[in-house]
Specification:
Elements lengths: L3 H12 L3 H6 L1 H22 L35 E5 L10 E6 L5 E6 L4 H22 L2 H7 L24 H4 L4 E6 L10 H9 L3 H11 L4
Antiparallel strand pairs: 1-2, 2-3, 3-4
């Protein structure tokens, strides 16, 4: 779970998103980092027995920098106002199959899967789907998956309007093949992050994504 102090730090940061405030509150930020790392450690301790691919992960593999990349953004606020945790076997890639926990006041959620894979990775995933779409259908139609996440994420930015190159429009898995990312997410209440049973509650939800992550990992480990 998150500490009240960590949550309050981010609430104050939202109202004072500038370097002067951050420098004046360096001690609070240092304390937040300790809380952030303890929070990740507790989550990892709960998740690792449920998904053996996470066993090699360390805290440093799951963190995000608080500084925003503002080079190409109209919003020049220097700091992120959310707390993220990313857990994946592929420690050095933020778009590999994995699990994500996001705290942001009014917009907290959990998610997982493979977000924006590179072109060659997308080709591998689509090939796997084309040949083994029954496996993926069984995964997303599983009662646990549907109750926690509903369905794979689909929106105009994530979905092609037409069949991708090399695939027929009438392929039985065409709606899966049109996807450019393969993720699922579910909103959760901000208050849950302060619950003493947070790690267990969230882990039980996230593990419903393991079969999907296993399918995606299998695709990426197969030569295209």
């Amino acid at each position: 779970m998150l500490t009240k102090e960590a949550v309050q730090f981010f609430e104050d940061l939202v109202a004072n998103n500038n370097t002067d405030w951050m420098h004046a509150n360096k001690k609070r930020y240092d304390n937040f980092k300790k809380d952030y790392h303890a929070y990740i450690a507790a989550i990892l301790a709960t998740m690792k027995p449920l998904d053996k691919t996470l066993e090699s992960l360390e805290i440093k593999n799951c963190t995000f920098r608080i500084n925003r990349d503002i080079r190409f953004s109209k919003d020049k606020s220097p700091y992120k106002t959310n707390i993220g945790v990313w857990m994946s076997q592929n420690q050095n890639s933020k778009n590999a199959p994995g699990y994500y926990i996001h705290f942001e006041k009014g917009n907290s959620f959990i998610a997982g899967g493979c977000w924006c894979p590179e072109p060659h990775e997308l080709k591998q995933i689509r090939k796997e789907i084309a040949f083994f779409y029954d496996d993926l259908e069984a995964i997303v139609n599983d009662t646990k998956f549907k109750s926690e996440f509903g369905a794979l994420t689909r929106d105009e930015n994530n979905t092609l309007k037409k069949a991708p190159k090399d695939f027929e429009p009438d392929h039985p898995a065409i709606e899966f093949l049109k996807l450019k990312s393969f993720t699922a997410s579910a909103k959760i209440d901000d208050k849950l992050f302060l619950d003493k049973n947070f790690n267990q509650i969230v882990a039980e939800k996230l593990i419903a994504l393991k079969p999907m992550n296993d399918f995606l990992r299998r695709a990426l480990e197969t030569e295209a």
